[in-house]
Amino acid sequence: MHTTRLTLMCHARTVAQKLARFPTNEPVENIGPASDVLAARFDASRRLICAPELRTRQTAAWLGADAHIDQALRDCDWGQWHGRAIKDLQRSQTAALQAWLEDPHATPHGGESIAQVCERVSRWLVSLQTTPGHVVAVTHPFIIRAALIHVMQGSAFHDIDVEPLSAVELRFTGRWRLRLPGHDIEGTR
């Protein structure tokens, strides 16, 4: 039996993320300040793939020039909400935003539902099961969330490995949220 190892990496921070806006095809904030630090995290035998958006391609370039674009890793289609600030939607489309947050099948923005994203990512994960070796995939927060949902469904208790000195951050602000801390690239200079 072969082993498939998948490392999902979120793209570097964008201005849209800082401003709490739904993304467009924007670039990352700072191009390549610590590319050698990121590249050193993975050995050369890994297979590097990324989503088609500019921010994921730029982040993947920090890991090497051999990234292959995989359409299954593309960000959610935000429809009419592309580039819109969440605060603006809270004021102007309160019910639509609430429906989207509560119903994974809702598409008030006219784009892709969370359920559709999860199904797309589930199909992609199943396709990787026959891929031996280490795959590093640079993608988006929603795609990583969908992958985690796929892996954690059902009786997942015995499917969680907790390594020594690992840390998982949970925050409660009306509901529990899992937070996977990233690395501050600017702090590594």
TrEMBL record:
Gene3D superfamilies: Phosphoglycerate mutase-like (3.40.50.1240). InterPro entries: His_Pase_superF_clade-1, His_PPase_superfam. It holds the Pfam family His_Phos_1. This is Phosphoglycerate mutase. It comes from Pseudomonas fluorescens.
